[in-house]
Amino acid sequence: MKKNKVLALLTVSAMMLGLLAACGGGSTATPAPQESNAPVESTAPVGGGESEYNGPKVVIKIAQGGSSTGHSGVALINFEERVEARTGGLVDVQCYADAQLGTELEIAQGVALGTIEMALPGVGTFANFYDKLMFCNMPFLLDNREQSYAFYDGEFMQNLNDEVLAATGMRVLGWGENGARGLSNSVREIKTPEDLKGLKIRVQENPVHIAMINALGGSATPISFPELYTSLSQKTVDGQDNGIPLTVNNAFYEVQKYYTTTDHNIDQLVFITNDSWFNSLDATLQNILLEEVENWKWDIRQLSIDFENSGIDTMEDAGLTVTRLSDEDKQPFKALMGDAEKVVRDLVGSDFYDEVLVAVEEAKAEAEAHPSDIVH
Questions:
Q1: For a designed S-S bond to 173, which of 76, 251, 293, 313 qualifies (C-beta 3.0 to 4.6 A apart)?
Q2: Within this chain, do residues 229 and 91 fall inside the same structural domain, yes or no?
Q3: Do 279 and 351 reside in the same domain of the chain?
């Protein structure tokens, strides 16, 4: 995608950089985001710990739209604590969850502008900055989590990360799971595509998600996320398309009766940073951050599974019927994704999508040959 599109996105709205509470560190005080992140004179490590880093003090603001108490919020606080421990307090990591610094689009814009050092937008939003990433929304592209780990950690995505950097000035440090998406509703149990017929399902304003629901016989209804709980409770829509951790953490299950684990998309968060800012850092600090993003990546993947398992218990305890689809059960859903694939090919280019499919097959082989140590 051309840089002029990125520049246009940067002018959509101003960033919300006020006195906002940082999410980590166990502190009740609210440090105001600093207007400048220029390094200051080095001091001794804070807290008496041994520091691997002896450079200037640095403040790092990290923003995300997810909840501070959800799996992504917990993973980010863990990241904060590890970085601060390894730098002896010379690096102050300030986490802003719950969209405190703006929507996912706005926080990504902030990273591009350099007003926010790091952010964790969802790939559905981040794809607005680089069109080729739209393929990540393709339903049933990957069969399971193991395949998603191999794919997003593989050479194909690393090369695409380089393209994103060249086009946007934003460096992708890592990909982390944001949950396996499923379907909930308040009308009936969904076991087959036919069960979706006539149901109004809330989706993001995303052409691929819209094509998926419509292809399954439902009525795709774009609604902004902040309005979703009210829309479900007032029956403006019958159901929604989100993973279990998000469904439970936002209490959507309170106004739904059924949840089905279609796992049609292994949703991703993108850990991004402003490349100019990152290159200005001491090399030792750069390495610490890269290593801790790697730890964050596996941390959030495990937390996603843990929150999903506990979320199923929460929903069932609340009286929901949770329908777990087998791989065989999912095939009729996958077989109807022709229209969605056409949308994706139109968005990213058919030749490029063919390259994606080759990389997917390689990831499937890699996942089978070298399964991860993730505890399911």
A1: 293
A2: no
A3: no
292 to 81, 83, 296: CA distances (angstroms): 10, 7, 6
Q: What is the DSSP string of 57-116?
A: BEEEEEEESS-TTSHHHHHHHHHHHHHHHHTTTSEEEEEE-TTTT--HHHHHHHHHHTSS
Q: Judge if 152 and 117 occupy the same domain.
A: yes
314 and 361: one domain? yes
98 contacts: CB under 8 Å, gap ≥ 6: 23, 65, 66, 67, 68, 73
Same domain, 24 and 86: yes
- Indicate if 252 and 304 belong to the same structural domain: no
Q: Report CA torsion sign: 48, 51, 53, 54.
A: positive
CA 113 – CA 346 distance, rounded (Å): 30
**How many Cβ atoms from other residues are within 10 Å of residue 197's Cβ?**
11
DSSP 300-338: HHHHHHHHHHHHHHHHHHTTPEEEE--HHHHHHHHTTTH
CATH number of the domain to which 315 belongs: 3.40.190.170
The pLDDT averaged over each successive group of 10 residues in the chain (376 residues) is: 48 38 35 36 49 96 94 97 97 96 95 98 94 97 97 98 98 97 98 98 93 97 92 98 94 97 97 98 98 98 96 97 97 97 98 98 96 86
